[in-house]
Structure formats: structure tokens, C-alpha cells
Amino acid sequence: MTLIRKFSFGYAVILLAAAGLNYVPGITDAEGRAFGIFALDLFDDSLHLASATWALGAAILGSRTSKVFLVIFGALYLGDGVFGFFTGYGYLDFGIFTNPSEGISLTVFRVLANLPHIALGAVALIAGLKFGRGV
Length: 135
What we know:
By secondary structure, the protein is mainly α. It has one domain (3-130).
């Protein structure tokens, strides 16, 4: 298995774990936030599950498909995290369309809430572009 396919498979595992966070006892607080930070709902879980399925399918289908997954997924998730800093909401869960902007904030809570999408997106985008050359 090529390195780029391993990245896609790794993303499938990570995203599947993210989809299951709300269903592990002790992970969510009284307000339903995972780790006291992320307010995940059924829509978020579905998005993570669909992304995990996409990643797994890409890993199975081959290097070229894995590159496409990593680049598109990376750009989408990175952008979603950046939007979170500027508005308090992302676009992947339609939050920017259903909530008024809270403005830019670099508080610890806002950073922690958006860091997973920024980190996952950036790593995926870089991996897709770097390891996908010649694929």
C-alpha cells in the first residue's frame, strides 16, 4: 500500500472515531459537548461518517483516488476551520448560514474548537499535494 493510500486509510479511522465521540460515555459534558469544547450533533456525526466512508473508499480504490480525496477534503476542512475563527461557525455544517456571525476571536475556546478541522485539513492538503505527485 502506498503512503498516500495509508494517509487516506488513517483519515478513515480518525473520522470514524470523531463520528463516535458522542456515543462514548464520559466524553460529553452536561451540555452535550465532547471534551467540553465541541457541540457535535447528528448532522456533524453524519458528516464525519460520510467523510470516513469517502476516505476508506479512496484508500481502497487506489493512489489517484486517495490524492483526490486528500486534496479536496483538506481544502474543505481547512477552509471550514478558518471560517470558524472569523465567524464562530463553519460552512460544512451550514452554521454560517443558520447563525449570525460572532466575529473573529482567538480565545482558547475558539482555537480549540477549530483546531481539529484546521489541522486535519492542512495535513490532508499537504499530504495530497506532496505525496500525490506523479500519481
